[in-house]
Hints:
Number of strands: 17
Structural class: alpha+beta
Largest sheet: 12 strands, mixed
Oligomer: single chain
Radius of gyration: 32 Å
Order of helices and strands: EEEEEEHEEEEHEEHEEHEEEHH
Distance between the termini: 73 Å
Strand content: 25-35%
Number of helices: 6
Shape: flat
Amino acid sequence: MNKAKPALWPPPENFVAAPSLVEGIELYAPAPEEEPEEKTRSFKCQYCGGVISYSAAERQLTCPHCGRAQEIDAKQVGQAATEFEFTLKTMEHTQYGWGEEKQELVCESCGAMVAVEPDVLTSTCAFCGSNHVLARSASNDDLRPTALVPFSVDQNQCHSLVTEWLGRGWMHPSELQSIHASQEMSGIYLPFWTFDAHVQAAWKAEVGIKKRKRYYADGEWKTRTVIEWNWRSGQEHLPTNDHLVPGTAQVSQIILHKTMPFDLDGLVEYAASYLAGWQAKTYDVELQKAWDVARKEMRKRIKQACYKDTGSSHVRNMRMTTRFADEQWRYILLPVYLASYHFKDRTFQVMVNGQTGSVAGQKPVAWLRVWLVIAAILSPSACLGMLGLLTIPLGGSGGIGVVLGLILLAIGLAIALQIFRKAQASEEA
């Protein structure tokens, strides 16, 4: 068995042995540079050593033990926050992980994952209300956000907003005012993707123009309206800036959009300090899937612009080709309070915009009360119509009563349908 021969001369400093394709020839190459491993942080008060967290009211790190505050070294960047092009190079330079010590709580019921402080042992899932939550070490494989909008609404404000919202509306059970959903609100930074692009579209369609034409019939001149169709074409340009696409499918998109918009001028550079004491949702909608959603929504907007460009409400055979240029993206976090509450064996969800205080969610409906109101709206028309039908054989003005009854019935049905749809929408998510 041949033993490897020792090197006849020592290799230069910072050079290491490299594979050689020629037997008996030893090669040395510069040692690869080792990238320094980023150290995670845990947030301790510099005065008393207690665990500190970000205060939405104070807009800075605050110690709950001694009351001292520490400023966060991150500047406000607004819509000038860092953006990336869709290139492999930018993905290679993107940072990963949260930049601080975190653990993940995974819900066994709905699969939602949130990043929390290492000392959090148990939790109730804010997405479905389940208590079956497991803790594990947080992964550093996900992209790191480039910016976020800090919480501006604190827990006390959130409590008042949700309590007032739950007690609002005649069509909901009065017991909602005693629901403790506001006390179980979890402040969570939700993931969002934003996209910029210049969208250009060339369209061609048959456009109809109404015209009045005279014609002779039955011994007299008459007029009629006709639509003349002609082919037209044009171009539209739609510059899009900060088109938002949620980075998670774990929350109700209907409720989430009702709490929007967010003011992206409030974006600050991402700093792990803002997450101290708060939860952060890991994105489950990947970048490419989010970009597909954004492009579909941008195409819909520019198609509407093309229809508007025709100058007519009569359009057929519309053909459109679109082109995207200067596409850019960024990954950000936006603040939301989220809770699930139970009412009569049903689970409902409520959200609060952590920047503006806008509240939206699901509320159960007192359907008996709704049906009684609808019956009260329709009963006058029914009574008037029945009275009219009874008085017609007597030679009275029953016909007028029937006509008025039908008119009131049509109006009542329209109002009743509107009430029903509003009640149904309040329970949907």
